[in-house]
Fold this sequence. Notes:
Blueprint: H1 12-28, H2 47-57, H3 65-74, E1 78-84, E2 87-93, E3 97-104, H4 109-119, H5 126-130, H6 136-142, E4 156-160
Antiparallel strand pairs: 1-2, 2-3, 3-4
Amino acid sequence: MSFYGWRPYVPVAERRHKALRELEKRKKQGHAVSPVSIAGRTIATTFWGKAWCENLERYSDYANRLPRGRTYVRNGSVVDLQIAPGAIHARVSGSQLYKVTLEIAPVAKTHWKSICDDCGGAIDSLVELLQGRLSKGVMERICRQKQGLFPAPAEIHLSCMCPDLADMC
């Protein structure tokens, strides 16, 4: 520990090595592992992914936290990412291995009904819907701040074992 209580800096190469060791260990134990790897610097490539990132950035409490989190993703430090209904669980290799959980409250039934009513007549074709594509109008409606599908800060619970007390890292 340093003078201020922070663990000493761990070089990226060492973090990657730790991440790979942990990945192999978890595989040997029979855990299904989903490491995060991205090509290039772009983390979110779809309209929906970019909208999620923009939404979360509005809730960050410190300017350097989300960029540091993106750095962890880009350098391969996210050892395992599991997405379940209402929750995301991850193992991240930093100065040590951290367990991160993000829980999101479900959309209230009345809010969901309002979104469905607003979007009901705006779907261009059933074929596009079955292919997972929505019209621009529908996407704008569901991505609206406070009135769309994105959760508000009070609906997001973050739990992390790292020594940083900031939320939304």
